[in-house]
Amino acid sequence: MKPKIKLVIFDLDNTLTTGPTIWELIHRENKTWKSHGLPFWHEFKQGKFGFNTFIRKDVACWKGLSLAKLHKAIKKMKYVHHIKKTILALKKEKIRTALVSSSVDQFARKVAEKFGIDYVFANPIAIRQKKLTGSVRLKVAGHGKGQIVHYLKKCLHLKKTEVLSVGDSHFDLPMFKQSGVTVTFTDAAKEVKQYVDHVINKQNIKRILSIIYNGHKH
To answer: Which of 16, 181, 163, 177 is nearest to 101 (CA)?
Structure first.
C-alpha cells in the first residue's frame, strides 16, 4: 500500500542540525558571539524581546562580514544522521520535501542543495558587494510557519492529511496545526510533545519513513 503523505516539511535548526546553530557559528566567524550573540540569546530567553527582534539584532551585528566567512560558518555545520537516505527514500515514493525555517536563507538553501530538498522558505540576509549589510528579510517570522505551510498546500493542491511536518520547538506549533501528521524529538520540550503524533530519536530521522507507512501514534 502506497503512503497517502505527499509532502514532508522539516524545520531546520536543531531538527536537521546538531551542535552549535548557524547563528552561533556566524557570530564566532565575526568574533561577536560572547559580546553580542550569547547575551542576545539570554535576553531573548528571558522574554526581553521577541523572536523577530532577536533575529534582527543578531543580523545587525554582522554588518560588513564577508560572504566568504558566512560560507565558512555554513561549512562547519553538523547534521543528524540519515538525512540523505531519508530524502532519497521519500523521492522514491514521489513524496516532495520542504524546509520551513526562521533560519538564514543562504544556509537553508545550501542544506536543500546538499540533501536534495525540493522547497525552501527561510530568511534571506542582505548581501552587497560580497559583504553582509546587517539587514534581513523576515519571510518566515517567529510564528509564521503556519501561513507558509498553508500557502504550500494551496500551491501543491494538497489536503492537510497529505502533509507530515517535523519540528522541535513551540515555533513549529502553527506548522503542526496545518499538517495531518506531526513529529518531534525525545529532547523536545514537553509543551511541544503534547501536541504531536509521534516522538522519535533525533539521530534516527529515517523513522519518519515507517511513520508514513503505519501511521499509528506513539
So the answer is: 16
